[in-house]
Predict the structure.
Amino acid sequence: MRVSTSQIYSIANIGMRDAQVSLDKTNQQISSGKRVLSPADDPVAATSILALNQELSRTTQYSKNINIADNNLTLEDTTLQSVLNLVQRLKELAVSAGNTAVLTKSDYQAISAEVDSRLQELVNLQNTRNSSGQYIFAGYQSQTQPFVNQGGGNYTYQGDEGQMRVQASTTVTVAVSDSGQRVFENIPSSNNTFTTSAATSNKSSPAAIISVGEVFDQETFDKFYPSNMQVTFNAVSSVTPAAANYTVTDRSTGKILVANQLYVSGGDIEVMGAKFSITGNPYPGTVATPATLSLGAFSAQDFSADNGKIKITVGNVTETLDLDQNITSIADLVTQLGGDSVYPNANPISSSPSANANYAKLQHLGITLSPTGVFTSANGLNINIQNDSPTITSVAAVNLVTGFATGKAASTDGVVAQAGDKFFLESTDKQSLLSSVSRFSEAMKNVLNNPDSKADLAKIIGKTLTNFENAITNITTVQGDVGARQNMLESSTNLNADISITTQTVLSQLQDLDYAEASTRLQMQTMVLSAAQQSFIRVSELSLFKYM
């Protein structure tokens, strides 16, 4: 067979290249310590290696999560312990304050001063932030300050009831926070009590403030419980002489508990055993301007044969009045439409079924029709009247009301009343820790040097001690939960460590290089490359010219 010079070079080039590639790959394996450098080296092993590396990445992330969770729980535990220490000190002050036979008003002022200082310290603890600047007791609203002073010793919780959670292992998630609602708000109260708040729609500026209040007559309040109250400020013209005044109603039924009471800023308001105060100048609201619409020029008309209908709308309520009698006078018309100041009256037309029905419809609309023919909507909602019968438009007496010749008429003088500022009392069998401290402090500030006042204070102190005990029990329970979660994190840490070791062992078996085998292979591949190079040199020197 004839072999050309180019074939000799090509074959030699391919052989040396393959030998060099094998040698380079072995060198890469030895330098990296890995047997599988690409999926092509071992497709089955490569798939397993990818899955094992992902498992190691997850385990590493779980370890980071556990560190963050443990730091958060440690911070929470430390904070709760500080709160418990504060409550213990407040209990000591409450026990001291219970010596009403010896202590004077000035003594109580001094104790309340320390209580106020401890109260502010407590607020700061309940608004604790972690290293990331997040409030640890705000639930999911971690960027929102959870406890805000609304004035009057009243603190509101702005967070929610959510719990932050982290993944500690493949199957374990751990709560790393507790909401302030659970820890500091939902504490069983010694007795039925209430919370106070101002409506967000209030218009007074600066805003009027409602105090935290207290139950001064437990028996009366227990009868009212669990109903809630609403304090609404009325127009100053609601009383004579004109002055700021308010009405208290049952929120669920609208029943008036007290009406048009004169308001004194900071003065005690006592309703159904509850006592509180409002400070400032609440917006008083305005009274309604009645809407009026008069009947037009009158003409006699007999509707007994061909009935007429008038549609009246007030607000969102519509009624249709029927005319089915012989109308001979304005008095007949007023009575037929269900009007007159004394209804039903002696007029024979009052026996008409439609007249009685029309009267009921006017009552439903909240309007009246005077003997002189004037519709009035006392609540200020404007009156709209529309012809709803061809009969009326075909008779001479079409102008039943002013402008009705066009088929419709409406009042324009009505102005609806605007309610003033509103404040709410919500009954509850829970009492927040801050409310307990605030009420304790306020009671001592208001005590007088007389037996009755001190007796009232003694009752409040008794309730306060019970509420402090309930708060300690609740916080201790949460603290126990925190410890249990930290134990769970420790177990997860150990589990993740075992998983990591096992995964790394399997991974090593799949991808780590056998250095003894690789060294032997390297020597062989080096020899093959060297032989190929030497052979090429010998072959490339062959030529017929040397034998001529």
Residues 55 and 503 are 8 Å apart (CA to CA).
